[in-house]
Amino acid sequence: MAGSLVTVGLTAATPAAPSCETEGCACPLPGKSAGAEQAFLAPPNPDHYARLGKIDAAGRAGQAGIDRRQFSLSAMSPRYLAILDTPPAYLELPPDAIGLPPFPANSSPQTRAELDDLLALQSSRTPEQVWRSQELAGVYYRLSVKPGDADWSAMRHNLFHMGEGLGPWFSPERLPVTADFMARVWADASYYLWAAKFRFNRVRPYSIEPRLQNLETPNFPAYPSGHSGNSWVAAFVYEQLLPEHAELFRRNAADMAFSREILGVHYASDSESGRIFARQLVDRLLADANFRRDLEAARTEVRAAHAEAGCA
Question: CATH code at 296?
Answer without folding.
Answer: 1.20.144.10
